[in-house]
Amino acid sequence: MGIIAMLGWASAAEVTEGAKAPAFEARDQHGALVRLADFQGKAAVVLYFYPKDDTPGCTAQACSLRDGFAAIQAAGAVILGVSADTSQSHKAFAEKFHLPFSLLADPDKRIIGAYGVKMPLLGFAKRVTFLIDRQGIVRKIIRDTRTKDHDQQVLALLKGIS
User: Fold this and answer.
1) Residue ranges in the chain assigned as alpha helix (H)
2) Residue 62 within a domain
3) Cα-based distances in Å from 7 to 73, 75, 114
4) Per-residue confidence (pLDDT) for residue 13, from 0 to 100
């Protein structure tokens, strides 16, 4: 194993547009088990990764998605947030900001690793959003997240994929 991999700088194979989305399952802030497969054939998935609950950028992003929640649902999609925080942390964050969507706990960073969004050294998730169609294919990846109007970024791209 090279020094780069040992230091945690090497990420998993990067997920690309047009590829099958890596399968996952995790508990949300209510303790419910959520699987990507649950939405196959039913809804597109807005899978957004963020570094940490209740920090300024992450709060702005979550509140933007909260504010655009009805429009995103109307476009045929569900929103799933993922960070390395615990279900308890997610519960407090979701309650504080009235977030109507699932926040998935990934403390062992399995999902973060599978999607190749792990920050070097720290291990937090990078701020990246994957738009996954009803067949489980990644259609769009947003790497240049605008936290204050992320809902508008997502909606503009969702129209073409649901």
Assistant:
1) 3-6, 56-67, 69-74, 87-97, 110-114, 150-158
2) yes
3) 40, 41, 18
4) 64
Q: Is residue 17 part of a domain?
A: no
pLDDT confidence bin for 143, thresholds 50/70/90: very high
Number of domains observed in the structure of the chain: 1
The Cα angle at residue 154 between residues 66 and 10, in degrees rounded to 5:
105
CA distances from 58 to 8, 95, 139, 141, 159 (A): 23, 15, 23, 18, 24
Residue type (1 letter), 103: L
State the pTM of this model.
0.91
Instruction: Supply the CATH number for residue 29's domain.
Output: 3.40.30.10
Residue 35, amino acid: R
Q: Are strands 33-35 and 128-132 parallel, antiparallel or unpaired?
A: unpaired
Which residues are known to be catalytic? Answer: 58
Q: Could you read off the pLDDT of 16-75 as tens digits, one per residue? A: 999 999 999 999 999 999 999 999 999 999 999 999 999 999 999 999 999 999 999 999
R_g over Cα of the chain:
15
Q: Is 6 a member of any domain?
A: no
